[in-house]
Amino acid sequence: MSEHYFNALEQKIDQLLNRLQQLEQENHHLREQEAKWREERAQLLQLHDQTRDRVESMIARLKALEQQS
Q1: Residues of the chain with pLDDT under 50
Q2: pTM, whole model, 2 decimals?
Q3: How is 6-68 classified by DSSP, letter by letter?
């Protein structure tokens, strides 16, 4: 086979390796983002539960005050 063929093949392989590296970096970045979003979601769910509990407690106290009147 000709040297031109091997040069073209080498260029294609280099392009594929570069693309692979880019995709690996992007994948790593996306996984980091996902982990951050999961952590944020867990925090928001915890805050939501705490808020709901406080509101339910206030409602119960208001109902108790209402019944005392």
Answers
A1: none
A2: 0.69
A3: HHHHHHHHHHHHHHHHHHHHHHHHHHHHHHHHHHHHHHHHHHHHHHHHHHHHHHHHHHHHHHH
